[in-house]
């Protein structure tokens, strides 16, 4: 009965499918795409969380658009929230109250939308951290890294324009800060502010403009870039973590259809369900407690969403006296540096790092196998230091809440964060780099001597030794497969005829930077070292080995293969 029903259903779909295929050629694309192999690892789901939370944003956003009124016209509220009855407010704020208290399911949809936005940004940032620390941005994925970076910036723009729409006190304070940062731009700042706000702040055009940007411009660009991002993922094939049987020439995993189609479908409902559960049980952005925007009241404890909090923290840490007068113009460095320079450095470094690393290493090969973060100590330490600066700024953006909750001095907290902003990233860099180098040394120790077992054996001559359990071929391969990247070697400044070589200064600069990247390193175990360790000191002479040949590693006394060719479980016969 089941077979008949399936065949009937297949026959009904065969006609339309054939019709569509003959006119679009979509069948070849679907067949190729369905056979695409994807590796299976939990960290790859971070990108899917971002995608599914964005879909949730679109679904809830369509609902909210039907009831929200993007207008700054003044009205007097009359509704079920008694505390606001008779209060003058904008139509935008009044419609937000109606959504929250009068539209069936309106408050739930508002909170789903807000929580989805927070999770969308959190998953993007975490996904980019995974890509950065594992080196997934290397050739040929540099352009896709830039696409992901632009998606993150657009996510910030979408979040900022979204939580500014209700026109409440909290969002109004954020817009006032934005107006101050824009006006701090020398010469053109005031003109730019008038252009954005349609006149003197707050003007009458801002909410309608933000609404257009929020529901039309930014989502449209995000959708286009998501499609481009996924296209590059399919085009370049998916990266995979190092392990036996995995190389830059293959992908070990499961096909998209039916495995990952089923997984992705179920995972979407899990993500949506978690967001809905959070929205139903955790209140967020209760604008009715804040009231409509009024420029006069500014209360403590007013923070933006977490992904914009680092800008708030930078502004709070900057001393207010940092101003200079140049040619009759006041240059407010106390706004320009935290509002523009600090974000510019953080985002600029993030966007250009793949190109910087490629230029420093001179590596032009394609990479599809990911790095273990411990094997790239400088990159890992740099990423941790940037994250440390980011989290310090986030905490600084809540210095008033820290002061009130822990009964501490606000000035003392601000002073501590000012010191930490400069000392913390450097300390985190140093600690992380030492940890990575220590883990590499631990890997060498494991490869050469194996795991400690705690068993002590006594020889006939009275010598005591601890018995070590050797690593299997797969575990050993994971610890020796990476390449030892060394600082660049450059040609001499002068050629054989004594003529100064063109481009020497540029090469010298690259060499100096490469030393910063790779001078501190731990070399992976070579086949000769492994053979020597297995000889247990009984023989000093080890036969020389060609490290590039998959031949046997033999020694005059007890030398063993790095990966035994006779072992069918060995990942391959390469020495590295």
TrEMBL record:
Its cofactor is heme. Residues 16-242 form the Cytochrome b/b6 N-terminal region profile domain. It is found in: Membrane. Residues 243-438 form the Cytochrome b/b6 C-terminal region profile domain. Residues 535-549 have a biased composition (Basic and acidic residues). Pfam families: Cytochrom_B_N_2 (PF13631). It catalyses: a quinol + 2 Fe(III)-[cytochrome c](out) = a quinone + 2 Fe(II)-[cytochrome c](out) + 2 H(+)(out). It is an enzyme of class 7 (translocase). Its EC number is 7.1.1.8. InterPro entries: Cyt_b/b6_C (IPR005798), Cyt_b/b6_N (IPR005797), Cytb/b6-like_sf (IPR027387), Di-haem_cyt_TM (IPR016174). It is a multi-pass membrane protein. The chain crosses the membrane at residues 45-69, 112-133, 145-165, 211-235, 256-280, 335-356, 377-396, 416-432. PROSITE patterns: CYTB_CTER (PS51003), CYTB_NTER (PS51002). Residues 531-576 are annotated as: Disordered. Keywords: Electron transport, Heme, Iron, Membrane, Metal-binding, Transmembrane, Transmembrane helix, Transport. PANTHER family: CYTOCHROME B (PTHR19271). This is Cytochrome bc1 complex cytochrome b subunit. It comes from Cellulomonas fengjieae.
């Amino acid at each position: 009965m089941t077979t008949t029903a399936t065949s009937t259903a297949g026959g009904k779909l065969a006609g339309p499918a054939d019709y569509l295929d003959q006119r679009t050629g979509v069948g070849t694309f679907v067949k190729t795409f369905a056979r695409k192999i994807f590796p299976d690892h939990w960290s790859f789901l971070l990108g899917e969380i971002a995608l599914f939370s964005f879909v949730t944003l679109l679904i809830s956003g369509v609902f909210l658009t039907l009831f929200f009124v993007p207008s700054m016209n003044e009205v007097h509220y009359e509704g079920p929230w008694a505390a606001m009855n008779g209060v003058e407010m904008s139509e935008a704020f009044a419609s937000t109250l109606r959504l929250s208290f009068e539209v069936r399911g309106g408050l739930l949809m508002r909170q789903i939308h807000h929580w989805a936005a927070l999770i969308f940004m959190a998953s993007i940032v975490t996904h980019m951290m995974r890509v950065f620390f594992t080196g997934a941005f290397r050739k040929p994925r540099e352009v896709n890294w830039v696409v992901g970076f632009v998606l993150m910036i657009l996510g910030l723009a979408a979040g900022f324009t979204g939580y500014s729409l209700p026109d409440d006190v909290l969002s109004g304070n954020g817009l006032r800060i934005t107006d101050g940062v824009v006006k701090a731009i020398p010469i053109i700042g005031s003109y730019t502010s008038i252009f954005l706000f349609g006149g003197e702040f707050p003007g009458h055009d801002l909410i309608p403009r933000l609404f257009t940007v929020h529901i039309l411009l930014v989502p449209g660009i995000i959708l286009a870039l998501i499609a481009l991002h996924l296209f590059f993922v399919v085009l370049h094939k998916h990266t995979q973590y190092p392990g036996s049987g995995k190389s830059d020439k293959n992908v070990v995993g499961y096909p998209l259809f039916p495995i990952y189609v089923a997984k992705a479908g179920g995972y979407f409902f899990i993500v949506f369900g978690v967001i809905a559960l959070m929205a139903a049980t955790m209140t967020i952005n209760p604008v009715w407690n804040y009231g409509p925007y009024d420029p006069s009241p500014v209360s403590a404890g007013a923070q933006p969403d977490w992904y914009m909090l680092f800008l708030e923290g930078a502004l709070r840490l900057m001393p207010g006296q940092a101003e200079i007068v140049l040619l009759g113009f006041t240059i407010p460095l106390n706004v320009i540096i935290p509002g523009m320079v600090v974000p510019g450095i953080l985002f600029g470094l993030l966007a250009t790092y793949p190109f910087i690393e490629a230029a420093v290493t001179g590596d032009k090969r394609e990479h599809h196998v990911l790095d273990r973060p411990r094997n790239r100590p400088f990159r890992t330490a740099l990423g941790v230091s940037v994250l440390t600066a980011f989290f310090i700024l986030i905490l600084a953006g809540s210095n008033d809440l820290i002061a009130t909750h822990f009964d501490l001095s606000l000035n003392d907290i601000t002073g501590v964060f000012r010191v930490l902003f400069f000392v913390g990233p450097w300390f985190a860099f140093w600690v992380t780099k030492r940890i990575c180098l220590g883990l590499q040394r631990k890997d060498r120790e494991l490869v050469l001597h194996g795991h400690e077992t705690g068993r002590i054996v006594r020889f006939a001559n009275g010598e005591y030794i601890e018995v070590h359990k050797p690593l299997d071929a797969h575990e050993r391969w994971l610890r020796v497969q990476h390449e030892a990247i060394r600082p660049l070697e450059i040609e001499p400044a002068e050629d054989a005829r004594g003529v100064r070589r063109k481009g020497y200064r540029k090469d010298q600069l690259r060499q100096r930077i490469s030393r910063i990247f790779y001078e501190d390193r731990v070399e992976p175990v070579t086949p000769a070292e492994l053979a020597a360790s297995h000889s247990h000191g009984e023989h000093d002479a080890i036969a020389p080995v060609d490290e590039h040949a998959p031949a046997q590693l033999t020694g005059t006394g007890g030398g063993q293969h790095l990966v035994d060719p006779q072992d069918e479980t060995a990942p391959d016969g390469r020495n590295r």
